[in-house]
Amino acid sequence: MIATCKTAQYRRREGKLHDVAAAAIDACIKNLQHGKKGDWRAVGDGVCELRFLQTGSRMARVFS
Question: Which of 26, 49, 62, 64 has its CA at 20 to 30 Å from residue 43's CA atom?
């Protein structure tokens, strides 16, 4: 399982999300923890952007 953590900035934004949007993002993060990257694109220097199309949100992730 891939370890993930929620930053303080993420937690502040998460608190402002609608419950459905927060649940969709949490589901995508759980998939990521199990190695399923989902919808993503490389943005350079080893950083990938995960896209949550249902919510319009994006999250940067470094895959090593």
Answer: 26
